[in-house]
Amino acid sequence: MSDVTPCPECAGTGCPRCHWRGRRRAQLLLTVANTDTGAVASHRVTPADLAPRPDAAGAVVADLTPRVRALASTVAVALDPEPVLVRLPPAWRPELPAAERYALAAAALADAARRPWRLWLGGTAAAAPVDPGTRLARLCHLADLLLLDLVATVRRRAGRPWWTVRYEVPGSPVPDGPVEGAPDLATALLRTDAAAALAGLTERGLTAPARLLDPVPPCPGERAPLLGPVPPPVDVERIERRVLAELVESTGTGRPGAQAVWRDGRWWYTGLRRADGGPSTPAPGRGAGPCAVAPGRGAGPSAPAPGRFGGPSAMALGRVAEPPGPTRLGEMMPGRACPDCRSVGPTRDCRCRAAGPVPVLPRSDPMPASSPTPVEGCDRCGGTERRRSALRCATCGGSRRLHRAVLVTITDLRHRVVHLTWRGGAPEATRTVTTTPDGRAVVQLPERYRLGAWARVFGVPPEELAEADGGHPIPRALRDGCVTLPWVGADPVREYVRQAGGGLPAGRLVVTATRPAAPPPGELIRLVLGLDLALHVGVLDLRQHAGHPLRPDGRWWSAQVRPRDAPVHPDDLPTRPSLAAALADCLADLADDVGELVPTDPDESLPAPGAPARAPAANPLPELARLAAEHPGRAVTLRVTRAGRTVHRHDDDGVRLVGQGG
């Protein structure tokens, strides 16, 4: 019996999931690696290895969690994995013939192998357990520092509540995306640290109202202010019960969701309602307990009603009542509406224009061609012939306003924060540092506009500054406070604000000043070799541009995991401003990246890498940096595999081998 089965997605016709082969590999690779010792153990799961059993809900599943625990015991990793289950089709029965049972198990395993290689990383000692109440207290404390809302949201999906915990800019609309999250609030907190709570902040707050900060910010060189100690752990169960109570209206009608909002040092609770006045709209005049808006305080905007373009499948939600506005945010940020945003959002032609009056196909199916008539009830455009576009306005970045100020927040994500307000029109003494080839002046603003100067206050190198949402490095122009004036006499601060403020949520730029948790290079190399993969480390030396404000300078790095036999690609160029950031990204993404490194040919079995514990490898990166200094402006890549090491230089005509060793 074969471990290859027709692709469940396309039934053998070919699709991107099966690389257009029409067949999928019915195998799953389980691997556990010890980051302290480099030991690796793997197990290849085939349909014959499954032992299906009915679960409590009556479905037939094969539990692979015990095998993961056995692998962790083999390499001495303290691991408590989440359940790894393979769900078999309802047609599977133990009394079926062996060939039919095997075919159904193969189809189930092929469907479960959307991530064909599952990797767990862990150390010999168990990580300190995370207390949900303590984490929630720290997230609330950080929200007070950053002047953000911490929002715990519960949404219904298939009759069950699902929880997310996120930071939001005050006044952000309720996200109307797919319902996802954890089955309870405690589990959501275990999965959400400060960085995860900040992820997606821009998308959630892009159209939120922008306000200025009331307190006067400090000057460069002052010690970043510290707040008091983190409060004691929060009663998570009490908050969960209080939010779940908001899921039911006084009439007994269920609501689509509810929220707990931490703002100004206290919790506010509210239910969610249909923004278009659907059946879940609460009775008029009913508040949400302490979330009722105080007299004289304006309620922030709720989510807008569904626009003309967007389709009926997305249910726009709003809050039953908004909390009172934040006390530390003052007047509205000056600005004007974007002149280039003429509709509710960027739109484009919908594919249903070519479909004709036929039933709407699932999203994964291709739309047939030939008729110009739009489909009534299309789940993408609702029959309007126009659907939303993922592209943002190039003028405002999607915020729909052009702000004349930027509120900059720099933080170490623990207990220290600095707020800066940059306002266009402020008279500042500047100095001209250079001119562009077309004669425009490049000027440098005073220190309080230079984020690199604030990095020294936090004790980190300027190149380690990054955007809190996504971790993207801060551009050199913002680190050095330089701006190119479009014409003689232009306002430098206004142009600087325009350069920094595009596409920011509520005109706010949140910057993290932290050192990446990077592994030593020798330990990362040992781990990648234990997995029988290749590690590509690249460096680009641009220190010759240190005196030129218009060009990137310093050393740029990359660290990527590739298949064992993959060559160095000409486009694999360094993109991280420090070695620590590149190594930290590589380790953080390793468990997700390995799923894309398996052979695409379904007839080729998955490898099962294994390795004993051993000492870390020698660190070759100092020599790599020295070699890059000999080739300034050219990227140099070190490729490390079990077979040895090679060094490659990226030239205009491709990649050239410049050295190799054992």
Structural commentary:
The chain is an alpha+beta fold and 662 residues long. Helix content is 19%, strand content 24%. The protein is built from 13 helices and 31 strands. The strands form ten sheets. It has a five-stranded antiparallel beta sheet. It has a five-stranded antiparallel beta sheet with strand order 28-27-29-30-31. A hairpin with a 2-residue loop joins strand 12 and strand 13. The protein is globular and about 85 Å long. About 10% of the residues have low confidence.
Mean pLDDT: 83
First-last Cα distance: 42 Å
Radius of gyration: 28 Å
Structural class: alpha+beta
The coarse overall form would be: globular
Helix content: 10-25%
Indicate the low-confidence ranges by residue numbers.
216-228, 281-313, 354-374
Count up the helices.
13
Give the DSSP E fraction (strand runs of 2 or more residues): 15-25%
* Total strand segments: 31
Largest sheet properties: 5 strands, antiparallel
